[in-house]
Specification:
The chain has 293 residues and is an alpha/beta fold. The protein is 42% helix and 25% strand.
Length: 293
């Protein structure tokens, strides 16, 4: 009979052996000598009065009737992790100012709602960018961007790419583009909806011109205005795949595909260890990477 119930410190060694499939791997994961791992397992086996590990030349495996202890160890690990996070949820409070392009605002707001659900002490100020806010001058705490920064004071993390396509309203397609297919040779015959000329350096804008677009029915710095112009059937334009589908627009088949949009998460390097900023950065990074996957 065991002299005492197994404690977490005992079980975490057994769990490491199970995961690493060897005493050596377990010792490396726990930063512990291999001989110490072996002694700890032997002590646990003596305490429980039964073998727990099959030792082989190629490694180690847990005895079938000891897998219940592995399940217990994993449960204890999760509970300890939850208890460590619980104080963070209570402690992290304050306002975090987040800036993003207008076209990201809807999705970003949903993300921030989920962050606040995990950390109810947080509040947010969300700014839709018509220009790039100056993070170096603390005009915002965190920014979601589609353009690189040039400030040495700003840390920038690449999140992934947002896929885009050409879209148009059903009314435009029925009137001007039967079949929803557009050859580059015919692009100049169609009306286009685009960002303002000051943003012509963006890859999507450059693709539009290279494809042959010359007639622009609407140009705007406002993504919302572009969305409304497309929905109204005023022309063809480039939107994110999910964005265009959500607006009920038709995807137009083209000979080449517009380049995806790079998405970055940026913040001032001096704020990376501020608890409320660190928490929001961690949660946003997970959310954005998942959304772009």
């Amino acid at each position: 009979m065991p002299s005492h119930p197994p404690l977490w410190d005992d079980l975490r060694v057994l769990l490491a052996v199970h995961r690493g499939k060897s005493f050596f791997a377990a010792g490396k994961a726990l930063e512990m000598a291999t001989s110490t791992v072996a002694r700890r397992v032997q002590a646990l086996e003596r305490a429980l009065d039964r073998p727990l590990v099959q030792r082989r030349s190629m490694g180690a495996t847990i005895e079938a009737d000891a897998l219940g202890l592995i399940a217990l160890a994993e449960h204890m690990e999760l509970e300890l992790e939850a208890s460590r996070r619980a104080p963070d949820i209570k402690r992290v409070t304050g306002t975090v100012r987040v800036s993003a392009p207008e076209g990201f605002s809807r999705q970003l707001t949903r993300m921030l709602a989920r962050v606040q659900d995990q950390h109810p002490g947080l509040a947010f100020e969300l700014t839709s960018e018509s220009r790039l806010v100056d993070l170096g001058r603390r005009e915002a705490d965190i920014a979601v961007r589609i353009a690189r920064t040039t400030s040495a004071a700003v840390i920038e993390k690449f999140m992934g790419q947002a896929r885009v396509a050409v879209f148009a309203a059903r009314s435009y397609v029925e009137r001007r583009l039967p079949g929803a297919r557009l050859a580059s040779a015919l692009a100049a015959q169609h009306d286009w909806i685009a960002l303002d000329r000051t943003l012509d350096r963006l890859p999507t804008q450059q693709w539009m011109s290279a494809y042959g677009a010359t007639r622009f029915a609407v140009r705007s710095t406002s993504p919302t205005a572009i969305e409304e112009a497309l929905v109204a059937g005023m022309g063809l334009g480039i939107l994110g795949e999910a964005q265009g589908a959500a607006l009920g627009l038709l995807r137009i088949e083209t000979e080449t595909i517009p380049p995806p949009v790079d998405v970055f998460l940026a913040f001032h390097r001096e704020q990376k260890n501020v608890p409320r900023i660190r928490v929001v950065l961690r949660e946003l990074e997970t959310e954005i990477r998942h959304a772009l996957a």
